Amino acid sequence: MAEPNVGQSGRGGLTLNPAVAQQRATISRVASAAATPPAYGNIITVLSIDGGGVRGIIPGTILGFLEEKLQEIDEQPDARIADYFDVVAGTSTGGLVTAMLTAPNEEGRPLFAARDINDFYLEHSPKIFPAVSGGLLGLAKGVFSGPKYDGKYLQSIVRKLLGDTRVSQALQNVVIPTFDIKLLQPIVFSRYHARKDVSKDALLSDVCISTSAAPTYLPGHQFQTKDKDGNARAFNLIDGGVAANNPTLLAMTQVSKQILLGCSDFFPIKPADYGRFLVLSLGTGGSTKAEEKYDAVQSSRWGLLGWLYNRGATPIIDSFSTASSDLVDIHASVLFQALRSDKQYLRIQDDELKGDQSSVDVSTGENLNRLVGIGQGLLKKTACKVNIETGRNEPDASRGTNEDELIRFAKMLVQERRARLQRKLGN
Known about the structure:
Layout: H1 18-33, E1 44-49, H2 57-74, E2 87-90, H3 93-102, H4 117-128, H5 135-144, H6 152-162, E3 173-180, E4 185-190, H7 191-194, H8 204-211, E5 221-226, E6 232-238, H9 241-244, H10 248-260, E7 277-282, H11 296-299, H12 304-308, H13 315-338, E8 345-348, H14 365-380, E9 384-386, E10 393-395, H15 402-426
Parallel strand pairs: 1-2, 1-7, 2-3, 7-8
Antiparallel strand pairs: 3-4, 3-6, 5-6, 9-10
Helix pairs in contact: 1-15, 2-4, 2-14, 2-15, 3-8, 4-14, 6-8
């Protein structure tokens, strides 16, 4: 066998043939210069992140693990989550994580590595959700004096973080839902829309502030954009969780819509070809199921205040956010099972949170670190799927742990990305 030519250093001190080194360098340049759309590949890859306030630490922990495995398998130490997913969708705190993963830094790479997301939460959550008076004084403030928090710190840190970046400048296709309280209708911000309709090309910071504006917790957000003729368009927005606390189906629908509109990124995939989707859906933890806080006898005695405040919780918000997330999971799970492609859908969620763990705003150091531990523990649990008869999540005997499934997903994501890059180079 001929001696290998001395060239660029490889892993473990080995050397690569210059031709191989040049090919890898070229692939790296192609990967960083522009995304390779599904038209070059075999599947459509979707990442979805639920809303849940400080519980965003849980998907942050999972994403840190996934990104580490992607770097390891792809032998790309600077690889990022956005390099592997065609669509990244997020609601409320998930919308903020979406922006962190896809907004460009000065070098045109994602602003945050996934492993840094939790550091952001640990540093800033206590200032976004500062301790407030409890008891009757705290209740009176929440009922009569506006939202529980003024939102000023959240707005300042998000604006500092995202600057003048607009939705159209995201490095990957983002989907972030909000709800217009004036029009009483969902408003979805996506890179697809922003590149065709300048009035939807809002500042990414405005979108993140809006999708996080949970009723009773943070104030609604008003801002304006301009259409192509220079006319103002006003938005009056609150938390996207009102519309889609789990944005998985919303992301898939946005893809189908683009296919129907003839977007070349997806040719020749068909609008309802869901068997070609690879979907990772990350929850932020169930807020009330394990504790069974409420019952019909209790709720039958509640008036307005009872639905807004009960033993430190907000039953009406717990109810609509949990119902929204679960119905989407049931729908998606049944869809993938019906298509015999259920191994291409992975939902990671913990429905056993109790006490402060289930809160969206308890930002003590103790609770935040406990949430990190919950995310790490969730990796070790057996992957679940929806029982289509009961609608409940149950351990899936045909799967390993969530960690095992994420490694399997990482291998598929790397294989898909490599295939696309090779085809793009070939063309």
